Amino acid sequence: MAANITAALAGNPNSGKTTMFNALTGSRQRVGNYPGITVERKEGSYRNNGLEVQIIDLPGTYSLTAYSLEELVARQVLVEERPDVVVHIVDATALERSLYLAVQFLELGVPLVLALNMMDEVKKKGIRINTARLSQLLQVPVVETVARQGRGKDQLMQAAVDQARQAGSGWKPLEISYGPHIDRVLGQMTARIEAAGFLTDRYPARWIALKYLEGDEKILEDGRRVGSLSEELEQMAAKAAELCEKHFHTYPEAIITDYRYGYINSILKQGVMVVEARPSFDQSDQLDKVLTHKVLGPLIMFGILYGIFQLTFTLGEYPMGWLEAFFGWLGDTFTRILPEGLLRSLVVSGIIDGVGSVMGFVPLILIMFLLVTFLEDLGYMARVAYMLDRVFRLFGLHGASVMPFIISGGLPGGCAVPGVMAARTLRSPRERLATIITAPFQVCGAKIPVFILLVGAFFKQNQALVMFWITLGAWAAALLVSRLLRWTVIRGAPTPFVMELPPYRLPTLRGVLTHTWERTWQYIKKAGTVILAIAILLWAAMTFPQLPAGQVAQFQQEKQVTAQAVAETAARFGLSEAEKEKLLREKLAAIDARQGEAALRHSLAGRLGQAIAPVMSWAGFNWQTNIALIGGFAAKEVIVATLGTAYSLGEVDPEEAGGLAARIAADPHWTTPAILALIIFVLLYAPCFVTVVAMARESSWKWAAFSLIFNTVLAYGLAVLVYQVGSRL
Ligand code: GDP
Ligand code: MG
To answer: Greater confidence, 568 or 542?
Structure first.
């Protein structure tokens, strides 16, 4: 008989959820996003023996309290879509920790089936689990699985279908005792909630009361919207918190956690789990003795992170060169095919150069993601977060903020777009926000050519050292600004570092490759579409309005006069044909350059640059620099190219920026304080447009706009300070 039910696949990160999902659904998968946010939504279907199960892959979570986006999404799918059954993938080698989530499903009341995954490793570790006993005590079907081999998956689906059918649509929440104090408050709150029908269309009454005690922000918010009772409930929760403080020097959340683990332990001790023999050599523990050692740990960490950086750039150099060559060839080809004019200018300068510069980074992104994904799946990233947590906490951040910082360019050469996306691993929305806003301060790959240009022009003797200080400055800026934000606009208590260290586990090649490709493809798609639009816009701003016909004619005439003059000179001094050609080319190029500058002054971008000159001159910037900085809003690479154009040199290749550097160095306008001010400004001012879009997607447009304005104001203030003080010394 055909049964069509919907099952939600849930579990802690690293429990084997994705592996099981793939084993169950094979190629019948759809990947998308939850509306409005970037948490990935995967769906698929399982078919076998006349069973048909629609499967939703929930984000990996440790709890169902709204600490993080993942947890919120998981919960919302459960209450809004009401799947017929939750299939919880449990890492059986860490049964106690995994059951913490299971207990929360039971408290919510959803029909549940447990898959005890990693059973192969359980046996190796000398742990014995009495599955039948566990099932009996929890009153939930339990199936043993090895997701990597697809073992147990059919039994699991059969159990899910049976459980769904048996449960019907009613949810039967489990009630755990939380000790006399909490239980009393819970009882009072539950009674009030039930009487008022407060949010009870979605959640069980006692569960709502629990969330009030845990201070679950989403529930508090929903509650305030519903009204009347919410204030009273918040007061009751506050009083309970006071009581806890007085009696136990702790808060309700901690007590609730303790009792949940107590409940789990009492079950495990009733003959469910026996550790037969303490394994003589637990590799994870041994490894951690070295890898998270007080002194060695951080050293190894910096070594590994530096290695990632080195490997990425060493390996990435070649494919990046090929891509550059390809886009160069493409540009040349179109220059030949298309007649001179606006269309050619748009296609070559606008589209191919603009999109090409971003696509050029794809090999780097791919390699970096590959290495980072490997370390994540291995379980190492959790250790990095663990080690740096204490330092970051001082600045209002979290151990898990480290990776976003590094990816954004904490080791120069990253990119803030994947960096901001990497902040998803943060559980607390506030720490996540602070990370998202400060990550773009890092020295991303696009800022590097700008700094190389400026440092090369002015600090030729100490290039490496100055670059090193710029990098340190970026870290300092990120940490200090975060501290400032966490004291002011993003105030809130730090979240505990609850992530337990998972055992090291060698990931499969296929898993790493798939994951890497998914991430890279997202980058290509996003950057490709957005950058294309920017490239066209920017090109237009630097091209329109065009010089009036009269002025163009003047330049034309000047060229004719020059050609004639050159011809006469050549005749008089008897120059050879080659010498004459060369002279003519030089003279015409000089006129072209002046025409270019005039056109730029006349364009929208040029006018903007001149319009803000009175303000920007406080920081020591001239109008050409202003255009470059405006261009830098679109993408920081643009600063170099725009400076080049503005200095009438046309396109500037960052590697060969010697010409431009020399020109800038020779410009009396550029004093040392002015250059320092410019470096500081470029380091700190508004993130590039793609990053802003990414920030908006990861947080909200409001915060993206905030960082745009705040960073620019901060950068301007510091630049003015440095320039004004420096000029007076
Ligand atoms: P997720 O984070 O829950 O999606 O976990 P994954 O599916 O990515 O799996 C994490 C790691 O555990 C991967 O390296 C898998 O290959 C591995 N894994 C998954 N299931 C099993 C299993 O049953 N036994 C063993 N030994 N490893 C597994
Ligand atoms: Mg996964």
So the answer is: 568
Q: Exposed (0-12), middle (13-18) or buried (19+): which is 304, by Cβ within 10 Å?
A: middle
**Cα dihedral sign, 500-506-510-512:** positive
Residues near 424 by beta carbon (within 8 Å), at least 6 away in sequence: 38, 39, 69, 70, 432, 698
Strand partners, 42: 31, 57
Neighbours of 387 (CB within 10 A): 18
Neighbours of 726 (CB within 10 A): 16
The CA 74 to ligand 2 mean position distance, Å, reads 14
Q: Which residues line ligand 1 (CB under 6 A)?
A: 11, 13-19, 60, 117-118, 120-121, 146-148, 377, 505, 507-508, 511
Which residues pair with residue 33 across a beta bridge? 40
Pairing of strands 40-48, 29-33: antiparallel
- pLDDT value of position 596: 80
Three-class secondary structure of residue 126 per DSSP: coil
> Cα 143 vs. chain centroid, distance in angstroms?
36
Protein residue with least CA distance to atom 17, ligand 1: 16
- Indicate the helix (H) or strand (E) that contains 478: helix 463-487
Cα–Cα distance measured from residue 324 to residue 277, given in angstroms and rounded to the nearest whole number: 59
Residue from 9, 18, 19 whose mutation best tests the ligand 1 pocket (most atoms within 8 A of CB)? 19
- Cβ-based burial of 580 (10 A; exposed 0-12, middle 13-18, buried ≥19): middle
pLDDT digits 0-9 by tens, 263-277: 888 888 888 888 765
Could you give all domains of the chain from N- to C-terminal order, each with its CATH number?
Answer: 5-167 (3.40.50.300), 180-275 (1.10.287)
Task: Give the mean model confidence (pLDDT) for residues 396-423.
Answer: 82
> Is the peptide bond between 545 and the residue preceding it cis, with omega within 30 degrees of 0?
yes
Which pLDDT tens digit goes with each residue over 479-536?
Answer: 999 999 999 998 887 765 555 566 677 777 887 888 788 778 876 776 677 667 777 8
Tell which one of 88, 116, 123, 148 to mutate to probe ligand 1, the residue whose CB is within 8 A of the most ligand atoms: 148
Question: Out of 120-124, 379-383, 528-532, which region has the weakest mean confidence (pLDDT)?
Answer: 528-532
Is the pLDDT at 452 greater than 90? The verdict is: no
Q: What is the pLDDT of residue 531?
A: 65
Overall average pLDDT of the 119-142 stretch: 91
Nearest-CA residue for atom 12 of ligand 1: 16
Q: Compute the distance from residue 525 Cα to the ligand 2 centre, in Å.
A: 21
What is the CA(144)–ligand 2 centre distance, in A? 19
